Amino acid sequence: MKTISTTIRRTLAIVALTGVAMSAAQAETTLLNASYDVAREFYKDYNPAFVRYWKQKSGQDVLINQSHDGSSKQARSVADGLEADVVTMNSANDIDFLASRSAVSPDWSKRFPNNASPTYSTMLFLVRKGNPKGIKDWNDLARPGVQVVIVNPKTGGNGRYSYMGAWGYAKKKGMSDAQASAFLGSVFRNVPVLDTGGRGATTTFLQRGIGDVLVTFESEVVQVDREFGAGKVDAVYPSISVLCENPVAVIDRVTQKKGTTALANAYLDYLYSDEGQEIAVRHYLRPRSQKVAAAHSLTFKPIELFTVDEMFGSWKEAQARHFDDGGEFDRIYAAIGKR
Fold it and tell me: Which of 140, 124, 142, 263 is nearest to 191 (CA)?
């Protein structure tokens, strides 16, 4: 009887320890979201909402970790081994790059609605209070005596969209490619420093006091007001701008190894939910949901937008022609003596 009792006690102890280990493993389930620079505040609000939703749906506790930097730097980090479960970027070519490195599925843009972009934005100008330089449109960025703060198009989607906004404006105004290139040269000649990411550019403009105008995402206006106080800057909408999609993808090679594929897909799916879309609106990201958009019809200023495909053919073509090494941007920057 003593031997049986000892065996039972040992079995119960093993069962108890197994239960503790399973509970600990469940509590320690983590998800890493590698995201672009100026999205950190949005995900600080979104993550707790998803954690509550997932707990209610699955009974599972989950910890969401964040990594933020310029979108292209993030893509390279993930390609080089950063074990992110998901990426939430501001330009499709960064995820295409990850697909070329077999980190995400080649059909990533079809795995979620709206080209796997649950929100979108556009580029506008932040100017000093009162707009002392009278900046109204893209052509004003090329005027002598105007200092322009722009993210480096080689390292951040913010910078590539800024470049494409200016290029698209030039083409819409009837300029030839050569004239558009010269126009971009005049703009970048006015750029005192190229920051690697959107948040760095905002710091340069607001904290360091450099520049007359900051070209950035519409969503950055709210964060500037929150961080630096309302009334520090004015937002100027150009006559036309580029539609900036915010694409997302699951990093299959990571989630398959960690066993987090279902969780990662649910995390990105929830961005399309009413709650996810409402949180996006609070951070001045334009929602895809027609219902949510209708409820906030007065929040976002109407603006003529062109798409990357319309103006450049595709992200792949834009990247190869304008932003790859030796591309149009490198030639423009070299021609103005800055490289």
Answer: 142
The C-alpha atoms of residue 86 and residue 104 are separated, in whole angstroms, by: 9
Q: Are residues 183 and 314 in the same domain?
A: yes
Task: List Cα–Cα distances, 59 to 23, 26, 45, 51, in angstroms.
Answer: 11, 9, 21, 10
User: Which CATH number does the domain housing residue 16 bear?
Assistant: 3.40.190.10
**How far does Cα 75 stand from its chain's mean position?**
11
Listed residue (223, 179, 208) closest to 68, CA to CA: 223
**Gap between the Cα atoms of 23 and 200, Å rounded:** 41
| pTM summary value | 0.84
Asked if 91 and 144 sit in the same domain, the reply is no
Same domain? 223 vs 152: yes
Segment 126-152 mean pLDDT: 97
How far, in Å, CA of 221 to CA of 244, rounded? 15
Same domain, 240 and 325: yes
| pLDDT computed for residue 225 by the predictor | 77
Burial class (CB within 10 angstroms; exposed 0-12, middle 13-18, buried 19+) of 197: buried
- Residue 113 · residue 288 · CB < 8 Å: yes
Q: How far apart are CA 248 and CA 250, in angstroms?
A: 7
**Residue for token pair 């005027």:** 143
Question: What letter represents residue 285's amino acid?
Answer: L
- Residues 135, 104, single domain; the answer is no
Q: Does residue 284 lie in a domain region?
A: no
213 beta partners? 127, 148
| Total number of domains in the chain | 2
Q: Which domain holds residue 35?
A: 2-118+246-272
CA distance 108 to 103: 10
Q: Does residue 292 fall inside a structural domain?
A: no
**23: Cβ contacts below 8 Å, ≥ 6 apart:** none
Q: Are the beta carbons of 175 and 156 closer than 8 angstroms?
A: no
Six token digits for residue 225: 């007001």
Return the structure tokens found at 328.
């149009």
The string of pLDDT tens digits covering residues 153-176 is 998 889 999 999 999 999 999 999
Per-residue pLDDT of 316-327, as tens digits, reads 999 999 999 999
